[in-house]
Amino acid sequence: MLKVNEVLRVKGNTLYTCTPDAKVEQAVQTMSEHDIGSLVVMEHGTLVGMVTFREVIRHVHKNLGKLGDSTVRSIMNDAPISVSPASDADEVQRLMLTHHERYVPVMDGPVLLGVISFYDMAQAIVAAQQFENSMLKAYIRDWPIDSKPE
């Protein structure tokens, strides 16, 4: 069974963060420059929220197309769902679908290990299925053939 820690290992450990007092404009700039869809909001070394393009779009819509001087704190999700590194990929997919979340922090107790996206999960599951498929094909090709009929 595929685990979250395996997904993180393949994905890498680059993590983009901001503070809750950062301007929304700064968050948008960081997300745009790095072509990412979320930022982890950290305060004093602790996860306090997530800001994704969904929150940014809602903010822009509400403010008639302007970012203004708003802070990340005013738009962030301050109670993001999270998973542990030992969580099963199937469980994470169900959680993401149920809560309509595209980005989920991976926490080991109070320690943030990374963020996995719906795309990361899909990519990891497809890779695992391809590996399993190739192993099954190899097994079938190497199946011993009885030399004497019964």
Fraction of residues in β-strands? 15-25%
CATH superfamily: CBS-domain
Name the helix and strand elements from N-terminus to C-terminus, one letter apiece: HEHEEHHEEH
- What does the average pLDDT come to? 91
The N- to C-terminal Cα distance equals 39 Å
Order of neighbouring strands in the sheet with most strands: 1-2-3
Oligomer: single chain
Let me know the largest β-sheet. 3 strands, mixed
Q: Give unreliable regions as ranges.
A: none
Structural class: alpha+beta
What's the CATH first level?
Alpha Beta
How many domains in all?
A: 1
Number of helices: 5
- Shape category: elongated
CATH architecture classification name: Roll
Protein architecture, described:
The protein has helices spanning 4-11, 24-33, 53-62, 89-99, 118-141; strands at residues 17-18, 38-43, 46-52, 103-108, 111-117. With 150 residues, it is α+β, with helices and mostly antiparallel strands. It has a 3-stranded mixed sheet with strand order 1-2-3. The radius of gyration is 21 Å and the shape is elongated.
Structure in a nutshell:
Helix content is 42%, strand content 19%. The chain has helices at residues 4-11, 24-33, 53-62, 89-99, 118-141, and strands at residues 17-18, 38-43, 46-52, 103-108, 111-117.
What key attributes describe this structure?
150 residues, alpha+beta, CBS-domain, two-stranded antiparallel ribbon, 5 strands
